[in-house]
């Protein structure tokens, strides 16, 4: 991936379990549509799960196997290295109560595209949002970020700054305030 970045490719990753809940068939379909518009993108699926073979087959059927890398499960140094290499993190979840991987991506200076069905979108504002099923919107946003270094830089900087201000203590105080208000 490092060589592809040097050649000007934008690296787009979904670091997740490869399961139906994560909406990855939509991600792969959006990847194919994005590549029709802009070729200098490489897509990565980092993780493992029961949908792995189906997603590999879908990428082949869509003719994008040469631009879709399946890393398998990553942890430790590999996990950190992946986050440091990617430009755009995609969370295409059909249903995601929160989504800590989006916060991890924000911490690692990455632009974020998050489905509206993911809870982390309630915490982060400096992200781009899409409905998990809207492959055209996701493809367009990926291309917009890939074609605009200024947009990519702005998204990365703003979400990293926003992440740095997030406090679990502040979140806990808000929850306690809501609970106390409900008791009255």
User: What composes the largest sheet?
Assistant: 6 strands, parallel
Give the CATH H-level superfamily: Glycogen Phosphorylase B
Give the overall average pLDDT: 94
Rg estimate, integer Å: 17 Å
Structural category is: alpha/beta
Shape: globular
CATH topology: Rossmann fold
**Strand residues, percent:** 15-25%
* CATH architecture title: 3-Layer(aba) Sandwich
What count of domains describes the coordinates? Answer: 1
- Regarding CATH, which class? Alpha Beta
SSE order: HEHEHEHEHEEHHH
Instruction: Quickly count the helices.
Output: 8
According to DSSP, the number of beta strands is 6
Distance between the termini: 56 Å
pLDDT under 50 segments (min length 5)?
A: none
How do the strands line up in the largest sheet?
Answer: 3-2-1-4-5-6
3D architecture notes:
- The chain is α/β, with parallel strands linked by helices and 184 residues long.
- It has one domain (2-183): Rossmann fold, CATH 3.40.50.2000.
- The protein is 51% helix and 16% strand.
- It is built from eight helices and six strands, in the order αβαβαβαβαββααα.
- Strands 3-2-1-4-5-6 form a six-stranded parallel β-sheet, with helices on both faces.
- Helix 5 links the parallel strand 4 and strand 5 (111-115).
- The protein is globular.
- The termini are far apart.
- The model has no long low-confidence stretch (mean pLDDT 94).
- Pfam families: Glycos_transf_1.
- Residues 5-161 form the Glycosyl transferase family domain.
- This is Glycosyltransferase family 4 protein.
- GO terms for molecular function: glycosyltransferase activity.
- It comes from Candidatus Minimicrobia naudis.
């Amino acid at each position: 991936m490092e060589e592809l970045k040097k050649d000007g490719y934008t690296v787009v990753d979904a670091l997740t379990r490869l399961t139906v809940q994560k909406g990855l068939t939509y991600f792969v379909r959006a990847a194919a549509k994005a590549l029709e518009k802009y070729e200098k993108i490489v897509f990565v699926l980092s993780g493992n799960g029961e949908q792995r073979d189906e997603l590999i087959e879908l990428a082949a059927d869509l003719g994008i196997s040469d631009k879709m890398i399946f890393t398998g499960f990553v942890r430790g140094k590999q996990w950190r290295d992946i986050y440091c290499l990617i430009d755009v993190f995609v969370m295409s979840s059909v249903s995601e109560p929160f989504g800590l991987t989006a916060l991890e991506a924000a911490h690692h200076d990455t632009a974020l595209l998050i489905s509206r069905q993911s809870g982390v979108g309630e915490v982060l504002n400096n992200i781009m949002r899409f409905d998990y099923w809207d492959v055209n919107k996701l493809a367009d946003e990926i291309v917009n970020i890939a074609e605009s270094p200024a947009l990519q830089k702005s998204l990365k900087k703003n979400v990293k700054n926003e992440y740095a201000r997030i406090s679990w203590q502040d979140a806990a105080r808000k929850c306690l305030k809501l609970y106390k208000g409900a008791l009255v």
